[in-house]
Amino acid sequence: AQLDEGGFTVAVFSDAPSPDLVLAAGSRLRHRLPNATDLGVQRLLLVADLDEARAADLAFLARQLGLLVNVEDRTALCDFHLPAIVRRGDLVVAISTGGQSPRLAGRLRLFAERLIHRDWGARLARLGLLRAELRTQGKRPHEIARAVDAVIDGEGWLSPR
C-alpha cells in the first residue's frame, strides 16, 4: 500500500495467492513467481510467504540483477528493513525493529495510530503556517520555537488524556 501511495509501479507475483492477495493486487497479480526478465525491470523485491529455499533463490537472482531485497522474517536475506509507518498528512512516524520483530513494529504502529489521530495532519499544517509567518516577520529560531511550543502546550496536544 505504501508503494502505491508513493506512486511506484508495483508488480505482484504469487504461485499460490490467498483470496486477500488476489483482491488487493487486482490486475497486477501474476499467478507465478518472477523470473529474471520480470526482475530485470524492477529496482526492489519484497518477498513474503515463501519457504526459506525458494526465498533465498529469488533473493540471489534479484541481487545478481542489482535489486534491493527484503524477505519477510528472514533478516539474513534482507538488504533493508521496512518500517511500520503512521502517516497523518505531512506528519510521518516510522517504527522499526531492525528486522528483529516486524510483528512488534506492526503492533506499535496500531498503538501509535490511536495516539496520533487523523487531525494531526491539520495540526502540523497549522504549525507550518505559524512558522512561515513568524519567519517572514524576521523572528529568530528560539522565538519561533517558543511560539510553536505555546500552541502545542496551549492546545494540550501532548498532554496525557
From TrEMBL:
Keywords: NAD, Oxidoreductase, Porphyrin biosynthesis
Assigned EC number: 1.3.1.76
Annotated pathway: Porphyrin-containing compound metabolism; siroheme biosynthesis; sirohydrochlorin from precorrin-2: step 1/1
One protein family per Pfam: NAD_binding_7
BP terms from Gene Ontology: siroheme biosynthetic process
Keyword Oxidoreductase: yes
Statement: the UniProt record of this protein carries the keyword Lyase: no
GO molecular function: ferrochelatase activity; precorrin-2 dehydrogenase activity
InterPro entries: Met8-like, Sirohaem_synthase_central
Ranges for domain Siroheme synthase central: 88-109
Highest taxon listed in the record's lineage: Bacteria
PANTHER family membership: SIROHEME BIOSYNTHESIS PROTEIN MET8
Protein name: precorrin-2 dehydrogenase
Source species: Inquilinus limosus
